[in-house]
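Exercise 7b. Backbone tokens:
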């Protein structure tokens, strides 16, 4: 009897539960309609006109001999000049694996006329110490060590507290 009552209650509980409703698909919802944006008004500007004439090369020479040495130089009509020479050096450089490999020592100079009409000339050497330019127009490094001045008769200033207590305010009644 108890089993029959429990089974009847279970059937009633299952019958009282509502059937699940299927979820509508997303396409069932109305899609928002957006107004098209007008295309941006783009007006092509013509390229600026450059009235630059080609610069003529007055002199150019490049000599590469079979032993790895080279010499080259050129000059232009507007005052640009470059000269460079190089020679292979055996074994002062090392590659990523620590093996020695040949490299070059290069030296030369280049010059041009700046906007103030002054001639700028730079000489350089590139070797195991890197690229080393020298010129009057290059900035000089600031010295990192300065001599410490000797200070004599130094007197420690007297201690003065930063806060000086004030007497309490007493109103006069």
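Sequence design result:
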């Amino acid at each position: 009897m108890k089993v029959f009552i429990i089974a009847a209650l279970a059937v009633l509980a299952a019958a009282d539960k509502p059937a699940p409703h299927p979820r509508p698909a997303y396409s069932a919802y109305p899609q928002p309609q957006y107004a098209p944006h007008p295309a941006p008004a783009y007006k092509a500007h013509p390229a600026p006109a450059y009235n630059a004439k080609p610069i003529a090369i007055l002199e150019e020479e490049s000599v590469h001999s079979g032993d790895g040495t080279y010499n080259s130089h050129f000059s232009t009509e507007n005052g640009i000049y470059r000269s460079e020479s190089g020679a292979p050096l055996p074994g002062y450089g090392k590659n990523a694996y620590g093996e020695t490999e040949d490299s070059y020592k290069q030296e030369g100079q280049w010059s041009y006329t700046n906007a103030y009409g002054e001639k700028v000339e730079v000489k350089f050497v590139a070797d195991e110490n890197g690229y080393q330019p020298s010129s009057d127009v290059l900035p000089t490094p600031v010295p990192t060590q300065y001599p410490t001045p000797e200070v004599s008769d130094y007197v420690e200033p007297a201690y003065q507290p930063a806060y000086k207590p004030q007497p309490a305010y007493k109103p006069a009644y």
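Instructor comment: The CA atoms of residues 157 and 163 lie 17 Å apart. The chain has one helix and six strands.
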